[in-house]
Structure formats: C-alpha cells, structure tokens
Amino acid sequence: MEKVYNTLLTNNKIKYGDTIVVAVSGGPDSMALLHILSRLKKAIDIEVVCAHVNHNVRKESYNEKVFVENFCVNHQIVFESMVIEDYGDDNFHNEARSKRYSYFAEIVKKHHAKYLLTAHHADDLIETILMRIVRGSTLRGYSGFSEELDMGDYVILRPFIKNTKDEILAYLKENKLSYAQDSSNFKDVYTRNRFRKYIVPQFKKEDPNVHQKFYKFSRTLLEYNNYIDNQVEKVMKKVYKQETLNIESFLKEEKVIQMKIIYNILEHIYHDDLMLITDHHADLLYNTITSKRANVAIHLPNNIQAVKTYNNLILVPIDQTNHEYEIELITYVNLPNGKNIEVVDKSDETDNFVCRLDKNEVKFPLHVRNRKNGDKMYIKGMLGRKKISDIFIDEKIGAHDRDVWPIVVDSEDNIVWLPGLKKSKFDKTKKEKYDIILRYY
Q1: What's the distance, CA 125 to chain centroid?
Q2: What is the pLDDT, as a whole number, of residue 92?
Q3: Contacts by 34-41 with C-beta closer than 8 Å and gap 24+?
Q4: pLDDT at 304 over 90
Q5: What is the mean pLDDT of the chain?
Q6: How far apart, in whole angstroms, are the C-alpha atoms of residue 439 and residue 341?
Q7: Beta bridge partners of 80
C-alpha cells in the first residue's frame, strides 16, 4: 500500500496545488484511500474533496455519513454529500451507480478538480471480468475496468487496481483505521457477492497472485482493443456520422468490422457503464440493422432506444412520458421495466415466468409490446377471453406498471403470454409438444 502512496506522490499526475475528488462510502476500501490522500495532502499541499453518497436504503446510512464527515473534519478535508431520495423502476444497482457518478461529476465540476479517485481494487477487477465473461460483453467490457479513464473534463483514477482486499485490510489494521461495513455485501441475492464469496476464492487457492494475472489480462485486452479501434476508426468516419449509422455503408464491411462498429457505438453510449451491456444487445442491434424491415425500434438498457428508419440507425434516449413500445423478440429483449425476456434451451420451471410454445400454433415472429385499449387474451384453462385491464386489477398491478408491463404477441397480434401473470391457451405443458421456451426475469 505504501507503493500506492509513493506512486501518487511521484508519478507527476497529481501535482502541487491540484484539487482532487475522492469517492468515499465509508467502507474499508474507500477509507484506506481517503487516509492515503490525507497523507498526500500534507506532502504536496493538494486540495482533497470527499464525495459521499447516502443510498438511503439501509438504516446505518446516516451514521456512515457522520462517520466519514468526522474523519474529514479531523483531517482538514472538504466534505460533500448527497442523499438519493427516490429510485425509479430500473435495476437498483444500475440506477444507484448512475446517480452516484452523476453526483461525482457535479462535485468535480464545482471544485474544478482534475481527477476523481475511486477505491476499486484487484479483487473487484477479478469479479468484474468473470461476471462479464459469464454475461457476455464487448472486448473492452471483458477487460473489466481501466486504471485510468478519460472523461473529457476530468480523469478517473483507480490507484488500488493492483492491490488485493487483504492488502487493504492489512493497511487499515496497521494504521488503526475504523471503517463501516455494508451488511448488503454479504447477501447471496446479489450476483457480485456470490462471485466474491464462492468463485474468486477458488482462483486464489490455485494461485495467491492470480490478481496479477487478471491485471495483465485486462491490460492485454485493452491494448488489443485500442489497436483494433484505431483501425475501425477509419471505417467509423465513413459509416457513423452525427450519431447516425449509414446502413448501406455498414453492410459493405466484413462481419468482424461490423460487430466492432456496433460495440464501439455501444461503448460510446454507455461509456464505463458496460456492465449493462451483453453480447445479446450487440446481436440484437446487428439483427435490427440487417433486418429487411424498413422501420424498427428496439429497447436497450438505461432507457436507450435504437431506431432504424430505412437506411439509418440512431440510438436515442427514450421519452419516459411516452410508454408505448413494441420490440421484436428474436432471442433476447431488455424491457422498459428493467426486466428481460429470453429464449432459453431448457427450463424445469412451470410458473408464469416461463412460457412454452408450439411454432405451428402461433405466427412468427413474436413481438413484445405494452398494453393497448381493448386487449384481451385466452387464459389457459378458461373459456372465453379476459380483458388485460381486468387481469391487472385482479393482480393488483399499479397504474405505472400497467403502462409498461410486457405483453407477448404473435405477428397477428394474438396475445400468447402475459409474462409473470398469466399463461394463454397457446402455452404448453412440459409433456406436450413445444419447440420454443421463453423466460421472463
């Protein structure tokens, strides 16, 4: 850990008189980083600004804010904080991260800082790489996260990227530093926690220095990605102008170049938030671009919509006041309510979150849309049709959720499934003939 301090002191990035912002939750990683920066502040007279976010979901959050603030007062560090008052309907972690980094950017701008420092460490890098391999991602996404990230107006630095959690805990113990412990970090319901508790330790058993291998892997992927980007950039200038993809020019390129162009566009839209993006999204965009349909719109994470109009494709934010959507279901769709529908090879589930269909009984392709006035469906095991609006009332679905709730229809607009709520007459049991399985999650 002393190497981190010496590197920050001598690497000529942070200089005398600079202002830096450090993201601090109060946990062990960020408190170790804050302490190192308090030492750096004395050595080269820099201004350190601590930015703390209260996510407002645990009763301990207020005490953690006071704890961090007291540390800052005792070490003459500027303290800034905010409370996230409410959340929308998106994935909690994605939304919290987005709000958190938006706030950090505001603090950087307010204090005219050059750098934002975060306490992401070597174990975080291993977890991120493994999670993205499992989910699928872009080439840059598979690299995890970088030691430095140029945000245009400022640079994000992650000085702990080569240091393990054990090293951080040892530093805290050596310096008799207190820290807060987030109880949610121990809950198996969260994907990252499962990787942290059960998977990463197995890698460390094989090699205690495996974090160094992952760091090298990350750097290698970034180097290859940067090289390919330089080659693709020449093509991008021809096919992607003013945030618009020229489909005719795009289709003249080889498939490998086409996919890299798609990944580059996604990276441009999502920046360092690539955990939201999987290879499903890239394939969905490719299928949209190459589709014979002249006008198509698909939904992507974080309320982004890809709109194809004849020879052009653009990615734009969705107007959240307009809830209308219709998405062609090929293999996978990310929905406006933050959930997904995926075609899966097998499933043992029989609840309303899984649907089995016989392609001979429904007209393909399938689409997912929100409700329309007068929508009715044949519910499995019941005679006649029932209004979708009545099902929502029976199931106590809130007004906003009703507007965005997904309805799976065939190409003749027959409702074949109301995901999570009701199966239709088209649904098949495990013993009946079926050739497609849909999963809602």
Answers
A1: 15
A2: 62
A3: 34/68, 34/71, 34/72, 34/77, 35/175, 35/177, 36/1, 36/4, 36/5, 36/8, 36/159, 37/8, 37/77, 37/117, 38/75, 38/77, 39/5, 40/5, 40/8, 40/9, 40/14, 41/75, 41/76, 41/77
A4: no
A5: 90
A6: 6
A7: 51
For each of the domains in the chain, give its residue range(s) and CATH number, in order of start.
2-120+158-206 (3.40.50.620), 237-321 (3.30.465.60), 332-440 (3.50.40.10)
Chain centre distance of CA 132? 10
Both structure tokens of 336: 């406006």
pLDDT digits (tens, 9 = 90+) for 319-377: 655 668 888 898 888 788 878 899 999 999 999 999 999 999 999 999 999 999 999 99
Copy the structure tokens of residue 324: 């209308």
383-397 tens-digit pLDDT: 889 999 999 999 988
Residue matched to tokens 């938030």: 273
Alpha helices (H) in 240-326, listed in sequence order: 247-250, 255-270, 279-290
Within its chain, how far is the Cα of 32 from the centroid? 26
Beta strands across the sheet bearing 19-23: 78-83, 47-54, 19-23, 115-117, 155-157, 148-150
The answer to whether the CB of 144 falls within 8 A of the CB of 132 is yes
Across residues 31-53, what is the average pLDDT? 96
* Per-residue confidence band for 155, with pLDDT thresholds at 50, 70 and 90: very high
Rounded Cα distance, 14 and 114, in Å? 8
Residues in CB range of 372: below 8 A, 6 or more apart: none
Q: In whole angstroms, what is the distance from residue 19 CA to residue 109 CA?
A: 11
Confidence grade of residue 248 (pLDDT, cut at 50, 70, 90) = very high
Nearest partner of 26 among 56, 84, 70, judged by Cα: 70
**What 3-state class would DSSP assign to 317?**
strand
